[in-house]
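User: Predict the structure for this protein chain, please.
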Amino acid sequence: MSNIYDVANELNRRLRGLPEYQAVVQAKEEIGKNPEAQAIFEEYIQFQNELQRMAQMGQAPEGDFEGRMREFSEKIQSNELVSNFFAKEQQLGVYLNDLERIVFEPVQELLQ
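Assistant: Here is the predicted structure, written as structure tokens:
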């Protein structure tokens, strides 16, 4: 039987070879070439990190959270490069969700 870490590393390599993964890489490279798209992308990532920190600390979003989300949504939709990145990332997410379900199935069975 293969070492579980060898299997995980092989999965890592195969994920990187997926056309959907490569499409996300290409979309991110295109963002990096455009200062406006890069600024929107970085600002959104900072916002997401802020939300994640708050969630980890058990805090609710502060201020005009819905307004900020609407603002980001408009900025993302108005910039083709950023919008394309998130569309490609969502396509890759289908694989990742399926893999997560498969990998964690044995753990879920233990909890039933």
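The two ends are 27 Å apart (CA to CA).
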